[in-house]
Amino acid sequence: MDALKAQDPTRIGAYTLLARLGAGGMGQVYLGRSPGGRLVALKVIRDEITDHPEALARFRREAETVRAVRSAYTANLIDASLDAAPYWLATEYVAGPTLSKAVGRGGPFPADSVKRLFAALAEALASVHAYGVTHRDLKPQNVILSPQGPLLIDFGIARGAADTALTQTGLTPGTPGYTAPEVLIRNQVGPAADVFALGATLAYAVTGRPPYGSGPTHAVSYRVVHEEIDVDGVDTELAALIQACVAKEPDRRPGLDTVIARCAVSSALAEDTFYRRLTGDIEAVPQDLPAAVAAGLVPPGHGAPIPPAYQPTAGPGYVPTASPGYVPTLAPSPTSPTAVPEQRPSRRTPWVVAIAVAVVMGTASAVALRALDGGEGSQEKGGASPSASASPTASAAAQEAPDHILNDRISRDYWTLSTDPVEAEHGIGACRQIGAVSPPEELQYGVDDADDPESSTVAERAKITFRFKYAELKTEKPGPYYVSVGVKPPHEIDAETRKPYEVLMESKNIGYTSKPVDIYTYWKDGGYIELTYPDDFQSHFPQGKVYPAIPVANDPGDWTAVFYHVKGSPDDYESIGCTGFRVGSS
């Protein structure tokens, strides 16, 4: 849970904002309080993408799906505004860790606890399927472990059984490692695909490892189609159930009722000792504005006073009138059983998660792009050069990026490998960023060893990939959005020796940077821009000084890769994302 920022609104609709809960590609999620005191998770779509029909359609679909599926295993929709900006929806607020966070921090679940979780999640999916809806993106990040039991979240790409227009040709929904083979190969989505994702999710819960390994999207998806799931060391009976759920052919997977029967649980998950320990230490949540101010989540004096419609007046029997912009959506619309009623004009704690946060990764092909040293253009594998692919419009010409960016500022962005043994084993770490801004769409990126994608560390060359998620759903190529990647070693480097100084000093510059490229180069097929360190990187200083990138072996440790949005000049750029990699033993 993060504090509100100066640019954040005081309220959304009738809801007073108390804190930030998270962010995704679609927008920001806030903790809000209704006039009557109810806490909600408010998901607000970004202003930058409100003009994109496909984004609005996806947002409306999520609201309609959550509203249609009123289950004990999902967070109910409370309110929404989907006709005019700002677009938002409010769901029940539920505190608890995601399954991903719980495993990452507490390690794999015991077999007996996993069986109870297996049965509970199977029952949750059965409840969703009973409404004619397939989730399509079940994964550890989309399971909330509440004290009462698990809840399914993120219905942004869910579809009804009668809805056959899934996605554009060539784009598969879901998340690599949890998306069924028939979805990857034939784009065939149905209840059996959710069963596959259930098996993969529980494999992660009991092993603490990605079910089909880590690495680039296409490599993980290849293993899903052609290789077996990782259940090494798992109890034989539980491993057999997981393997049945992830059978390559959908008709060979068990039904959810069979899954529940095979789990043969004799007590509720909420009574499980291991599970209760996970959900028993949830951070207290502020219940009102004074509490949020006292907790440092709302700056003193932030925002406007309560609207007159909600201000109490003297005298008995006072009943406040409704705000013009507040129309609850608990009751179905009289014109459509699934439509959302029209609106009238009008430091992060990982254990507390908003139900409305959407983090979805689509499966797409990775395409390589290599920028030449010296800024003399680019050479691509499988595509045209960034300059050739940019739309030939006046606005594109006006936004043409410089040949490089200058290493002329202090950077205190640092990536460090996780201290958790399981996460460290897979090369997982976290960034500390200062002064970063939010990109207009969700930025997806990754770093792998260029020569051994299975390695959790980098030996000689690092492959860096990035793209904007869902760019391929756009009907026209967006205007150019130039991105440069800055790769910085852990220590300051002596230009003569190309190694750290004898007295080690923490690196405080942006490091070695790539030639700015249009992130929408491969927008049509959803491909990733791909760069290789050190091949595609140099360090540019004022007065024309240029230094080649050093070999990673020159400075073992935690390296940081920062993504910069580049504007009209070499010194006009801002950070929009951060990742990193370990050089040497993890």
Domain unit count: 3
Structural class: alpha+beta
Q: Which percent band covers the strand fraction?
A: 15-25%
The helix content is 10-25%
What overall form do the CA principal axes indicate? globular
Low-confidence stretches: 157-172, 304-398
What number is the mean pLDDT? Answer: 77
Distance between the termini: 29 Å
> How many runs of DSSP E, i.e. beta strands?
24
Count of runs of 4 or more consecutive helical residues: 13
What characterizes the major β-sheet? 6 strands, antiparallel
Indicate the radius of gyration in whole angstroms: 25 Å
Strand order of the largest sheet: 1-2-3-4-6-5
Compact overview of the structure:
With 586 residues, the protein is an alpha+beta fold.
List keywords for this structure.
alpha+beta, Transferase(Phosphotransferase), domain 1, 6-stranded antiparallel beta sheet, 5-stranded antiparallel beta sheet
Describe this structure in words.
This protein has helices spanning 53-68, 99-106, 111-129, 181-186, 191-207, 217-226, 236-245, 256-263, 273-279, 289-294, 386-389, 394-398, 421-425, and strands spanning 11-12, 15-23, 27-33, 39-45, 77-81, 88-92, 133-134, 143-146, 149-152, 159-160, 368-371, 378-381, 414-417, 429-432, 443-449, 462-468, 482-488, 512-513, 517-518, 529-533, 538-540, 546-548, 557-566, 573-583. Helix 3 (111-129) packs antiparallel against helix 8 (256-263) and helix 5 runs antiparallel to helix 7. With 586 residues, the chain is of the alpha+beta class. The strands form eight sheets. It has a six-stranded antiparallel beta sheet. Strands 17, 18, 19, 23 and 24 form a five-stranded antiparallel beta sheet that branches. A three-stranded antiparallel beta sheet has the order 15-16-20, with no helix packed on it. A hairpin with a 5-residue loop joins strand 3 (27-33) and strand 4 (39-45).
